[in-house]
Amino acid sequence: MSEKTDTSLIKSGDIFVKAAHGEGSSGVSPVSQSTLLQLAIDLADSLSAQDRFNRLLTAVRSSVPCDAVVLLQRMGHELKPLAQKGLGADALGRRFEIRSHPRFEAICRSETPVLFEFGCDLPDPYDGMLQGFSGDLPVHACMGLPLQSDGQLIGVLTLDSMTPDAFEHIPSQTLEVMAAMAAASLKTAMLLQHLEADSVHTRNVIHELTQEALIKDGGELIGDSAVMQKLKQELALVAPSDFAILIEGETGVGKELVARTLHGLSQRAKEPLVYVNCAAIPEHLVESELFGHIKGAFTGAERNREGKFSLADGGTLFLDEIGELPLAAQSKLLRALQNQEIQPVGQDRVSNVNVRVLAATNRVLQHEVERNRFRADLYHRLSVYPIRVPPP
Ligand SMILES: Nc1ncnc2c1ncn2[C@@H]1O[C@H](COP(=O)(O)OP(=O)(O)OP(=O)(O)O)[C@@H](O)[C@H]1O
Ligand SMILES: [Mg+2]
């Protein structure tokens, strides 16, 4: 056979099928640049995977006239239709075991488009499913494109036409473009599916850990004294707001428990509660700990790191021992509180965050302000709703 042959016979087990690589001698013309451009724009524009698949199939049908076109995803030993045009509505609910369908098996085994011989008597997986036809399909043209990504078969695109020679002489460029576009759409959808599942899983883990942290040590403020009842009322009152809250009290009176209670009673209860002990961070690392840093920002910053503010996005940040925060970090914290924006160390732009801050200290912060150890403006910002936890 010469190199210009439209199709060649390949032996696939006992099945004779043709590997289609036509040069466009007749019938179907090569995909035009404008069709390609429109398809690329459509695919990029699509919001959902289903919409992207439908646009893809519409573009395929406009390039190669056919009665049915189906995009299937490979899931282990099965093929699952993701989108179709021309089959009955129930086609999308089907699963095809590859080895039970010789046509699918041939396509999956091939690395190039497969054109089934006219009159090929292999059973058709779509028998009884083509719209407008009942029972087994009459003699028709049938072609399958294996869709690959990184050398792996990820899916199949099939085309069926009632016109027996419909797929003879399809330009190889058309087939290549269709296979590439379909594989790219499928790969993007699979990637998004994976990322979405990953993100849902991560949120569930966060939720679980947050709930666990909230009920740690019983999780409830114990005590029925008048002061304790007053404290509980205060907490119930201020918890739902988004204001920063300063929790003051002597060592061991339950300030951390108060912070957890506030978070648990707030609208952010399902979101993370992130804890920072300001007394435990070396001074030169405070800024990076709170706001994060980018790779190379300082010696030892080997990769980007998210700060606690960003981790608490949507939830609550509990700054314990805030009285120990160095003055330089205090001014950055004030800015974060005022503007709800943070600037990771080494990054020139700011990022927006939505964080509610709770702060606790066993110092009397007002005294720290008087001694110039705590910024007055930050103190005022934090003490809109000061809560004093009384000793038991
Ligand atoms: N009213 C309370 N009800 C139940 N448990 C309490 C109460 N007060 C304190 N505790 C318990 O006492 C221990 C210390 O509480 P917590 O860590 O919240 O104190 P703190 O004020 O943060 O202390 P520090 O200033 O040392 O950090 C915890 O195990 C906490 O559960
Ligand atoms: Mg504490």
- The total strand number stands at 17
Mean of all residue-level pLDDT scores: 85
Q: What is the CATH topology of the largest domain? A: Beta-Lactamase
Report on the biggest sheet.
8 strands, antiparallel
Low-pLDDT runs: 1-17, 21-26
Proper CATH architecture of the largest domain? 2-Layer Sandwich
In CATH, what is the class of the largest domain? Answer: Alpha Beta
Which hetero compounds are present in the coordinates?
adenosine-5'-triphosphate, magnesium ion
What multimeric state do the chains show? single chain
Number of helices: 11
Question: What is the number of independent domains?
Answer: 2
Structure commentary:
With 392 residues, this protein is α+β, with helices and mostly antiparallel strands. The chain folds into two domains: 7-194, GAF domain (Beta-Lactamase, 2-Layer Sandwich); 215-388, Rossmann fold. It is 35% helix and 21% strand. It is built from eleven helices and 17 strands. The chain has helices at residues 33-45, 49-63, 102-109, 172-214, 226-238, 255-265, 286-291, 308-311, 327-339, 365-370, 376-382; strands at 7-12, 15-20, 68-75, 78-85, 96-97, 114-116, 141-149, 152-161, 245-248, 273-277, 292-293, 305-306, 316-320, 341-342, 351-352, 356-361, 385-388. Helix 1 (33-45) packs antiparallel against helix 2 (49-63) and helix 2 packs antiparallel against helix 4 (172-214). It is elongated. It starts with 6 loop residues before the first strand and ends with a strand. The relative contact order is 0.10.
